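Customer escalation, tier 2.

The customer says the design service returned an amino acid string that "doesn't look like it belongs to this structure." They asked us to rerun it and document both sides in this ticket. The original structure tokens are below, unchanged.
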């Protein structure tokens, strides 16, 4: 397996030295995470879950707003858990943030229900998106919002690719029982980004 292919795989489950590099690159793309948080617009005392928190930029952005609530994050990478924990050490020490190793296909149980769930550039790695979304719905309060953000970075991706990705995510959300679906687009390089927001009705 060539180095480039191995490096690409790091974005699925970062590990080792290349995992640290992948995490660094993902942290530089934190605009998508902060944008997603701004679209969700959580209240100070909300409960929020991030699926696939990567290097923890989204968790950090959430903690700047949700300073009286509870923020949880799950990721399958030990390297990302370490990076995100380092980045959010203070919020973790205050009990505001909990980060854990877990797969979206088998999320942990929580004592509370979430008002919001977000995921940035992660759904592409979910083996069974509809099943995963069904499980996430079970963790949510009625009328809670989920935000799925994607910037398709595959070779040859363009604005039409972004729309196709948005429609695919919409289909997953509808099949999982979500409603009131909205599309939000952000101009970015090398291709635009989309955030699909839906309500747990």
């Amino acid at each position: 397996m060539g180095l480039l292919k191995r490096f690409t795989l790091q974005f699925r489950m970062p590990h080792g030295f290349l995992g640290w590099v992948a995490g660094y690159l993902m942290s530089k793309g934190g605009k998508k995470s902060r944008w997603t948080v701004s679209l969700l617009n959580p209240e100070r005392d909300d409960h929020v879950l991030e699926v696939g928190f990567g290097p923890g930029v989204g968790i950090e952005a959430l903690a700047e707003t949700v300073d009286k609530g509870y923020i949880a994050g799950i990721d399958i990478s030990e390297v990302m858990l370490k990076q995100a924990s380092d980045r959010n050490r203070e919020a973790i020490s205050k009990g505001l943030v909990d980060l854990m190793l877990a797969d979206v296909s088998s999320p942990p149980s929580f004592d509370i229900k979430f008002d919001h769930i977000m995921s940035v550039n992660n759904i592409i790695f979910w083996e069974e998106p509809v099943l995963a979304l069904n499980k996430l719905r079970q963790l949510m309060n009625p009328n809670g919002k989920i935000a799925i953000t994607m910037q398709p970075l595959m070779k040859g991706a363009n604005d039409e690719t972004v729309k196709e990705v948005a429609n695919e995510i919409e289909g997953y959300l509808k099949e999982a029982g979500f409603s009131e679906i909205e599309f939000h687009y952000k101009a970015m390089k090398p291709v635009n980004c989309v955030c699909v927001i839906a309500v747990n009705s």
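Tier 2 assessment: The sequence is consistent with the input. Helices lie at 3-9, 16-28, 31-40, 57-65, 78-87, 89-93, 129-137, 159-175. The beta strands are 47-51, 70-75, 97-101, 114-120, 140-150, 179-186, 193-199. Sent an explanation to the customer and offered a walkthrough call.
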